[in-house]
Amino acid sequence: MHGCADELEELLATLGVTKDDRIVFVGDLIARGPDSRRVLRIARELGALAVRGNHEHRMLVAYGALTRRERGPRLGPAHQRLLSELTEEDWAQLEALPLSLEFPEHQVRVVHAGVVPGVPFEEQQPWTLLHVRSLTALGAASDRYAPVSWAERYVGPPHVVFGHNAQAGLQLFPFATGLDTGCVYGGALTALVLERAQVPPPPSERRDVLVSVPARQRYVDYGPRPARAS
Fold this sequence. Notes:
- The chain is an alpha/beta fold and about 230 residues long.
- It contains eight helices and eleven strands.
- The protein has one domain: Purple Acid Phosphatase, chain A, domain 2.
- The chain starts with a helix and ends in a 16-residue tail after the last strand.
């Protein structure tokens, strides 16, 4: 979501979310977009679940260094402002975010970025869950964009739902769904909507369970505009 609070509210309204629905975010709730704090507040009010994204992790590392009066990671101007804007409640919310969530009734695992195919989940590195986009020639995790995603080579179960890779846009593979359609970059905000105990349908049918709203503007200029989900 990257702080795209208006689009989040529009998507929730389009979905007609009620107290009986379970909302799960795939990380990167904050940073780059216009209103990170409102996104966090909406998530709290919904009682939503979420996994930690690389932007939450980077901000937590910076915040920890600040409180210890140590040198932290280099931050751009937007992240630096966010470091001073977030409240104790916001920081506690970010700190509580897990690296993964399991939904056995849907045969789904949620992570922010992905996994290395063939490696047992308990042996996956935290860096991989937060950053991977592709694989090297030797099959190691890489954060670089490549035409072939790690998800194309992943064979479940479970089905992995993830975000992170806006340059690739919507990704529909037999055992993985990538939902980052680049809202903050002028694309769209996209949700995978499953009924109780429903498993993700095959790629040829999965667009039937996707709901998307367009970005209201291009908040960050970050290369080519991602393709919108449709």
